[in-house]
Amino acid sequence: MYIYLNGSIINNKEAKVSVEDRGFLLGDGLFETIRAYNGKPFLLKAHLQRLYRGLERLSITIRETGEELSGVVKRLLELNSLKDAYIRITVTRGLCSRGISTTDCTEPTVCIVVKGFNPPDGRLYREGVQLCFVQRPNLRIPEDADIKSLSFLNYILARTEVERKGAFEGIMLNPAGHLTECTTSNIFFVKDDIFFTPAIETGILNGITRQTVISLLKQNGYRVVEGRFLSDDLIEADEVFITNSLIEILPVSGIEDQKFKPPASTLKLHSLYQEMIKTECF
Predict the structure, then answer these.
(1) How far is Cα 41 from Cα 87, in angstroms, rounded to an integer?
(2) Is 157 helix (H, G, I), strand (E, B) or coil?
(3) What is the tens place of the pLDDT at every residue in 53-77?
(4) Alpha-carbon gap, residue 203 to 142, rounded angstroms
């Protein structure tokens, strides 16, 4: 398996990152997760644009341009003979002196890994998945909507609640009690043929798939409302679905004890999304 690390494509068994790297010590860095179809990365440009916006916000400057990273991703897919793949780009602040000051940091660490990816069972797209509410609040602030941080502890702790309840995903509220996102996905719901999703101002990651879905809905004449919603708004919906780069658009069959009708609108939307994939990757 070949990976990219700090300017070189090497065998993954040769890869080494210092135990003093800020990503390891403090979670100081960003990452992007991208899916490839037919050996081609989907929405790579949008992911790279968000990566660089996040790096600018964190005052991390890397040598590689977006065009160079794009070339590396495509080269790794070729070298590893991968068609359907998971791609992860990770950037950390690199090595700094002890403490949390960033004034004397050296070169950032840049790593790209590609692996084969098996999508969720097709049955889940027909029948939907079960969600639950988690007690742990989402503490993300709106200013961090473009920062896909390595600091994932809050979501990991929320995920332990999800696993304890036996659900597929967990819905997180912010301290004000508004819907935000799930532990690794954005959430939408449908009511009277209108599509709703929590606004950036509630404290969510502005997912690339989320942005794509909103654009796709508007292009096809659907009304989309981004706002502040409560858990009751979600429970009273006709349909609910979740999105991220790996699962695409996945319908929700139920939340806690509430069950939803067959996901007709969600399945139609997913079909439109897959047409986009075919156009870009096949």
Answers:
(1) 8
(2) helix
(3) 999 999 999 999 999 999 999 999 9
(4) 5
